[in-house]
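Support case: PLZ complex. Customer-provided input:
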Amino acid sequence: MTSTVTPAGASAVPQERRLVTAIPGPRSQELLARRNAAVAQGVSITLPVFVAAAGGGIVVDVDGNHLIDLGAGIAVTNVGNANPAVASAVAAQAAAFTHTCFMVTPYEGYVAVCEALNRLMPGDFEKRSALFNSGAEAVENAVKIARAHTKRQAVVVFDHGYHGRTNLTMALTAKNMPYKHSFGPFAPEVYRLPMSYPYRDAAEGLDPSGPAAAARALSVLDKQVGAQNVAALVIEPIQGEGGFIEPAPGFLGALAEYCTANGIVFVADEIQTGFGRTGNLFACESEGIVPDLVTTAKGIAGGMPLAGVTGRAEIMDAAHAGGLGGTYGGNPVACAAALAAIETIETGDLPGKARRIDELVRPTLDAIAERHDWVGNVRGRGAMLAVELVEPGTTTPAPQLAGAVNKACHQRGLVTLSCGTYGNVLRFLPPLVIGEDLLREAFALVSDAFDEVAKTLPAAEAAPKPQPDVD
Ligand code: PLZ
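Agent response - structure generated as follows:
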């Protein structure tokens, strides 16, 4: 089946799923053997097909299989893989110059990306930005800036939070395995608060409302840290790696208000949620939250490594001259890619496309949850959607079921990912330019994958869906 890709993502790669070998095919298996001999085992692989080309919503492997992309390289290629506007901006910049180091001899692209970020970020006040290479580096720098501004040290983060793999960001990240195990000691002065997790809060008999969850978190902050010691509160407006956990309405607002009242820098980590992914340019906007600082990466540059910290001028300018930087931060080729990606996101209304993806996909996910009592929760926003899998008829996490469905999706030629503190969440992050026919085909196959896994379960499936356990 062929599908039309929007002009924003027009791609030379035919937009159709096509399987010509087993997954992985023989050529991928050869490369896997080489990978096993050459690449450190700590770097793991979700779906072992080696990529030859990718475009729009399709990934082509070295055996000629065309897979439908429901991962976008972990929420990166929002504008589609090898987006033509991004590719030609990259080629032109690479031909002009590839690097000078902005701190040595600057160039316009860096300034233009900062201007775009300042313009796009919520908040009607003067802003500044600084550019880095990776999400983790952006988060580290947001903390440095907040500490310089407040002259305080503590940083508060949340259960299920993910902020990166560097030493400070490992400390900020909640989950031990695989991110932290055996890699300590971690940076000090990091404190963790309970998150608003509506599905599990209700299952545990807690008030799942946003204000109640915020009161629980802020009480820990008050009692265990002390507001006057806190430089920054760092939070993902919808948690990504932790399980696509969307806090209950009012949670983020109560935290932001507390930060303002107590001189704490409110940092929204929009690295996974940003650049149209959730149906707004930034996820904070849906509740009118105006963070002091925002960290961005992933979707900012259509696949080139770039990250940013953007925020209130007086906070951003608190770091002394020479205090921020790095050899490659805001590399000219990455900046050229970002300018093309941002223009595509704006002119192609990619936030609108994300809302359309939600509209098209959610009914299928809801229908799957209706049919199978091991789907505990369907959630997410825009093109950041997930299902949380549990032992049939309970709320006990079932990572093995998420693994089985994921594998069944891979076998059908879909690039899908799992996530979650309990490893039991299947997440969907298609490129925002994916064609609607391709999307429909993909989710019919996801549905089919669930039905196949259901057949392997003991036969209690026909019974009416029981109420969730309260444990
Ligand atoms: N903050 C909210 O989602 C990266 C991690 C993949 P980097 N998420 C994907 C993996 O297993 O390493 C992420 C994020 C949020 C920060 C980061 C870190 O961004 O560009 O991977 O450093």
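Residues 74, 134-136, 139, 162-165, 236, 240-241, 269, 271-272, 297 surround PLZ (CB under 6 Å).

Case will auto-close in a few days if no follow-up is received.
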